[in-house]
């Protein structure tokens, strides 16, 4: 099987979604008649992605049972799926960077990273963006979104040259990281290849350090986007239009 061009993060417990996630993993909660994770998989397939790794932990068997080895909803090209089962291998999730490091042997040199609990059905995942990123020097390219009510201070600034900043340019503001980005394996070089010991490692410190070094580019995305982090946001998405 070819190295995958994307990893969808689906290992979290979904504490803020309880009690809904006590018996159902958050990526399988229904949004507009389909599991929440259906939407990013459909968008990746529409964009021409050749394959996806899904990392799992909490109730991960349900995710594998639901989606299997091939995503094919009839509306987009079929998409090969592989799984990195952190729950089976280590008894729980490895945090974001630890989970990505664990999956690196299944991933290509550059790859998309996105959360399985974010609703951005129109994001294009363009192959041209992947090729341009692969030809450039950066360690990651992040898509930022206008700040939602639950994150008014944002996460990253954006320089006029298109670099991510830990602080905003004077006169501007920081924007929220959409959880969608292009990454290079080299960003995780300080973690053991394949993370065989199951080290837990967060992503934010790696990104912050690389941003300080000028190694992260970014751009704004203004399409529909929701971090489905609470029952209230889930209910809002499911309101009749």
Key phrases:
241 residues; 8-stranded mixed β-sheet; 14 strands; alpha/beta; 23% helix; two-stranded antiparallel ribbon; 26% strand; 7 helices
What does it look like?
- The protein has 241 residues and is of the alpha/beta class.
- Helix content is 23%, strand content 26%.
- The chain has seven helices and 14 strands.
- The protein has helices at 38-46, 60-67, 86-90, 95-103, 127-135, 204-212, 231-237, and strands at residues 4-10, 30-31, 34-35, 51-56, 70-71, 79-85, 107-115, 118-119, 140-145, 157-158, 164-165, 176-184, 216-220, 226-227.
- The strands form four sheets. An eight-stranded mixed sheet has the order 5-6-4-1-7-12-9-13, with helices on both faces.
- It is globular, with a radius of gyration of 17 Å.
- The termini are far apart.
- The mean pLDDT is 94.
Q: What overall form do the CA principal axes indicate?
A: globular
Low-pLDDT parts are none
Taking the alpha carbons of the first and last residues, their distance comes to 41 Å
Strand order of the largest sheet: 5-6-4-1-7-12-9-13
Total beta strand runs = 14
Helix content: 10-25%
Question: For the residues shown, what is the average pLDDT?
Answer: 94
């Amino acid at each position: 099987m070819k190295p995958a061009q994307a990893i969808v993060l689906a290992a979290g417990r979904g504490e803020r979604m309880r009690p809904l996630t006590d018996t159902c993993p958050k990526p399988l909660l229904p949004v507009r008649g389909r599991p929440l994770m259906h939407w990013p998989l459909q968008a990746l397939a529409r964009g021409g992605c050749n394959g996806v790794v899904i990392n799992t932990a909490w109730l991960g068997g349900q995710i594998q049972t639901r989606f299997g080895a091939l995503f094919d909803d009839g509306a987009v090209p079929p998409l090969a799926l592989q799984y990195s089962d952190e729950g089976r291998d280590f008894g729980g999730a490895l945090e974001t960077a630890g989970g990505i490091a664990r999956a690196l042997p299944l991933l290509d040199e550059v790859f998309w990273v996105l959360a399985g609990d974010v609703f951005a059905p129109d994001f294009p995942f363009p192959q041209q963006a992947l090729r341009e990123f692969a030809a450039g020097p950066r360690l990651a390219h992040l898509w930022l979104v206008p700040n939602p009510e639950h994150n008014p201070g944002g996460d990253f600034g954006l320089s006029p040259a298109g670099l991510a900043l830990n602080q905003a340019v004077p006169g501007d503001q920081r924007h929220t990281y959409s959880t969608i980005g292009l990454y290079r394996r080299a960003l995780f070089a300080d973690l053991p290849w394949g993370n065989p010991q199951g080290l837990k490692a967060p992503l934010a410190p790696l990104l912050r350090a690389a941003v300080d070094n000028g190694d992260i580019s970014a751009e704004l995305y203004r399409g529909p986007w929701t971090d489905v982090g609470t029952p209230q946001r889930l209910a809002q998405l499911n309101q009749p239009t």
